[in-house]
């Protein structure tokens, strides 16, 4: 037995599981090379922006109070704007999560009487209350902003005719969600998003086009802002935080849109000028610097898992060979027991809380029990290896993340190990 095989065995991975994984890994060499090339490009893009904006040690200073002239914060926002090729950006610890960033981008740029159109069907769960699809205190609906939704076609593509029909005088903003999130449709490529943006802008050039970019950053070499999006929005405890950002969200886009967001985030009149960075800047910078390779690790993990579970006969979305537009992998495991075993494996491979046994529980807002496996340095971070899913047919686990490829690989091998031990899978 080689040293590494011994190490895997010591950590609970039997030789059979390791061999099965190694064969799959060997077949993925070309795809992994392609992911590395993309990471190389994106790494240069980030590095170039950091050099151009003269990042220096004083960017990492602790700033408290009002935060006037917070040099680190202002420089980082220029870096984000350069990387996303936008006029401006807002990157703040005061943006508490992805939902907050999205809510901000909407509420800051919509006024009573305006209409929001979702061109990619039902948005992410948490946005239902933001928009008021599910009645909620403080929703856009309460402020007189109306909403229309154009569902995707059967095959998961945009319904261009219905989008045209949905756009009226009142339409102020159109939004698309890049990642499938927890739906079964495919995620969109940036070029598909570009196509729908062009289509919408031809019908109504002054529409503000916002893209929910969560889980998509650095998966491709271009971002939705490169193909005409007026705002791209995401969470720093996903891709662009690189696993180091302890909190935060970003919005990158047109000067006017971002200015509106800043006035809404802090206060009319104050805008971007206030909001002290409270010592998180080094993590924001370093996380953004690492993000391209962290995303590459997560992508390799997702592709590895897709190929392993596909080979074992499970339905996987995306499948083993499809191109990737986000870091989420769904595996339909077919039973509650299999979901639980899978999640136990993911948890057991984590650097934090590896000894904990995740259990299904009745999470608020869900109509069935949900199981979640996560052993993360940053609570709730889903750029770190994590898996979850509702315990109901088709018993799919959604899993994503992995700060390094070897740790993502261990997580997936461990999920398989637990399925083998539970005699759900025979190798
Ligand atoms: C995660 C996510 C959100 C919400 O982000 P939170 O940080 O969980 O609030 C919104 N949209 C998509 C597509 C996401 O993946």
Structure in words:
By secondary structure, the chain is an alpha/beta fold. The chain has helices at 3-10, 15-27, 29-52, 71-83, 98-109, 125-131, 160-166, 190-203, 255-265, 281-311, 336-348, 405-421; strands at residues 88-92, 115-118, 146-149, 171-177, 208-212, 231-235, 249-253, 315-317, 329-332, 370-374, 386-390, 396-400. It is built from 12 helices and 12 strands. The chain has a 7-stranded mixed β-sheet with strand order 1-7-6-5-4-2-3, sandwiched between helices. It has a 5-stranded antiparallel β-sheet with strand order 8-9-12-11-10, with helices on one face. Helix 6 (125-131) links the parallel strand 2 (115-118) and strand 3. Helix 3 packs across helix 4 (71-83) and helix 10 (281-311) packs across helix 12 (405-421). It starts with a helix and ends in a 6-residue tail after the last helix. Bound molecules: pyridoxal-5'-phosphate. Residues 97-99, 102, 124, 126, 177, 179, 181, 212, 214-215, 235 line the site of pyridoxal-5'-phosphate.
